[in-house]
Amino acid sequence: MSVILGILIVLSLPLTLVSQEMKHDESLLFLMAARNAAKAGWSKKAIQRYQAYLKLTPGDYIVELEFADYLQNNGHYRKAEIHYDILREKLGSVTEGKDDFARKLNLSAARNAVKNKKNDSAIKYYEQVLVFDGGDSKVAEEIAGVFAGLGRFDEALELCEKILLKDPQNLDVLTLKSNLLVRLKKYPEAQETISKISPDKSNLKLRQLSADIDAWSGNYDNAIEKYQKLVRQFPEDRDLWNQLIQVLSWAKKWPLLLETAQTGKDKIEMNDDTRALLVNAHLSVGEQEKAVELWKTISRESGTWRASALMIVDKFLSQRKLAAAADMLEKIVSGSKPATEAHLLAKLAILYTYREMPGKGFEILNQFSVSPQAKPIFEAARAEILSLTGRYEDSLSIIHTLEGDKETGLRLQMLELECLYALEKDGMLLEKSSVLLQKLSRNEMADKAKILTLRILSQIRTGFYKEARIEIELLSKSDDKDPGPSILTVLLLAAERQLEAQEKANQVLGKVLAALTAETEMVRPQLLDAVPLSVWKIADEMAMHHNLEVRIQRAKAEYKAGNYQQSLTLYTELGKEKKRPAL
Length: 583
Hints:
Elements: H1 2-40, H2 43-56, H3 61-73, H4 77-90, H5 98-115, H6 119-132, H7 137-149, H8 153-166, H9 171-183, H10 187-195, H11 204-216, H12 220-233, H13 238-250, H14 254-263, H15 272-284, H16 288-295, H17 303-318, H18 322-334, H19 342-354, H20 358-366, H21 375-388, H22 392-401, H23 409-422, H24 426-439, H25 445-462, H26 465-476, H27 484-496, H28 499-513, H29 533-542, H30 548-560, H31 564-579
C-alpha cells in the first residue's frame, strides 16, 4: 500500500510544477498587460491588471510599490495610501535590499501624503527616509518645503543648515534657505545667504531674488539698480520689466517709471494694474490730462478702475482744487453705466461738503435707491459729512454700526481717528492708531502718513513731546516735498516753549512755504491753518511778495490774528492781481 502511495506522489510532482509554472506565466502576463496599459494611458485597465497580478503574487512587494506609485501619479491618493500602509506593515518580512526598499517606500508615502494634504504624516515618512539616507539633499529640500508649508520655518532652516555643512555650495538648498529667510522677513540674512553663492553658480532666479529682497526691505535704489542690470542683460524677459515698474512705483520714482515704461513698452505687460501704476505716475509729475486719458483705457470691470478714478480726484483734493475734483467726479458719474458706482457717488457727496454744500451732499446720497451692498458705502459717506460739519458724536454713532464692513474698513477707521482728534479723545486715538499702523502694508504709505500726522498732533496736545519728535522723523521720510513735518516741528517747539529753536524752525518752514503752490501735495492740507502768522510773513518776504498762494494764506492768517485791516489790504491787492492781464 505504501509503495502505491509513493508512486502516486512521484507521479503528481510534475503536475504541481506545471501548475505553478502556468500560474507564474499568467501573473507575468497580467503584469506586462498592466504596464502596457499604463504606458498607453488606460488607467482603469492598468489598475485592474495590477490588482489581478497582486492577487496571484501577493508577496511581490516591488510591484505593489510600483502599483501604489502609479495610483499616486494618477491622483488616486487615498487608494495609494492604503497600499503604502500595507507595505509598511509587511516591511518586517522584506529580506533582500530592505533598507533601500524602506527608503523608497517612505519617500513615496511622504510625497503621496503631501498631495493628500496630510502634512504631519508626510513629515513622519520623510524623517524615516532621512534615517536611511541623511545626506540626501533632495529629500531634505522636500521635507523643508513641507515644514515651510506648515509654518515651521525654524525646522526647515535647521535642515538647510545641516545640508550646507556638508555641501556649502548646494545651489538648491541655498535658494531654499534664502526663500525661507524672506518668508521670515529676515532680509539681511537672506541677502547674506545669496552673497555666499559663487558668481559662476548664481543664476537669473537668484539675482532676481536678491533684487526683490532689496525692494521688500525698502532698499529701493539697490533694487532698481539690480533690476536695471537684469533688463539690460535679459531684455526679452517680460517678468523683469514688470517687476522693475513695480519697484519704481514703490520707490515713487515717477519720472524714471514713465521713462522705463516708454523704453520697455513692447516688453511690459500692459494690463489694468500696469495702467493704474502709470495713472499714478502721470498724476505725480503733474500730468493730470494724460492720467485721465490713460484711466479711460482701464476696464470698468477691473478693480483698479474705481481706485484710479478716486486717485485722480484725491490728487485734486491734495492740491486743494475742490472744484476741479468735483467736476472730475461729475464727469465720471455722468459717463457711467446706469448702475453708477456707489463709491464715486459717495465721494461726490463728500466733495460738495468740502465745498461748504453739505445739503447737496446729502441730496446725492438720498436720491438713489440703495442696494444692500451699497448701503454701508453711503452710510460711511453720511458719517464723513457729519464729521465735516462738526457733528462728531453723530458720525461716531454711524461708524460703530458699520464696524467690520470690508467695503469701508480702512476709510471708516481713518474717519474714526479724525473724530476722536476733534473730540480731544487723544488716549483712544493713540491706542487705536497704533493697532491700525501695524496692519497697513508698504503700498499704503499715504494712509500711514495721515495716521502719523494725527498721532503727532495728539501727542503734542497731550505733552508726549519725545514720542512726537520720533514720529515727525518717521513722517519726514515718507515724502520730502510735503511741508507737513516742518509745520509739525514748529508746533512741537512752540508747545515745548523752546523759543530759540522755534525761531530757527520758523525760518526753515518759511523757506519751505515760500515755494508753496496750489499743486503742492499735502497729506493733511488743514495743517496750513495752524501755521503761525509770523511764518507766513517770513514766507512772503522770501517769495518777494510774488507767490499768490502764500499771500492768500497770509491774508487768512492776518484775519485769524484779528488784523482785519491788514487782511483787507492783502485781499484787495490779490483782487487787483487777478484782474491784471498776464504779460
